[in-house]
Request: fold
Amino acid sequence: MPIIDDAQLQLAIDRGLFKDEGLTVNTRMIQTGADAIPALKGGSLDISYGAYPSWFQAQEKKVIDLKVVSDAYSMRPGALTVSVPKDSAIKSAKDLAGKKIAVNARHNMVTLLLHAGLKPHGVKLDEEKNTVEMPFPQMEAALKNGSVDAAIFAEPFPTQTAKNIGARVVLDCGKGPTADMPIGSYATTADFAAKHPKTVAAFQRAIAKAQKMLAEPAVRKEIIPKYTKIPPALVPDLKFGDYPAAPDVAKLEKVTRIMRDIGYLKKPLDIEPLLVNS
Reply:
């Protein structure tokens, strides 16, 4: 996916980090982690980026036996927000009650963050009634023409929309109950991890090196325009999340607790067995 969350993959390719580990990596574009699951199960993908809720839901339903290989991205203030048009009567998160909110997909990480972010403001989200599905790039136009009241999206879209139409942030999902929330990771099947442990370990090492490099703003400014449509001049204005070195069990357990609270999971999910420890 051409988003800043998976910059480490592109950086590892660009800087030859995979090649240094003896790996040849070919990429394939997908829209969501849910789309990756049949491809992983069928063997047309070996490893895929995806959001944690997609992985955890598939694991609970026994759709696939997954292993998390590497962490990718986690929340910080401004990384994913709810915005409204500049002249909107919506002034704060509590005013979002009953409003139409654009989301890229229902029952995923974005709507999880929305549920959790609205709850402290006394707003209960009804996904079927209160959300409208559309790709992130279409949300600015939807805000402008009034087909939705608000939009929840990840960078670069909040920054671009603020610059283009003066959109205002009314809820920052990088603060409050979802601060530091893990967003996405790279996963494979348990079968692939068992049969190719050296390949998985090499992938982990390359991604870990790239994650460390992404702490430098100059590196982000260089790599992100190479695989996205984000202009180099805009990159310094973006509000980035974190690029963690490894999955954090306690933080992932927090994700599963919120998923249970909002009905995305039916029972507790044991995180430790899902992680590949090379």
User: Anything to note?
Assistant: The two ends are 26 Å apart (CA to CA). Strands lie at 48-51, 66-74, 80-84, 101-103, 131-133, 150-154, 168-172, 182-189. The chain has a mean pLDDT of 95. Residues 211 and 221 are 14 Å apart (CA to CA).
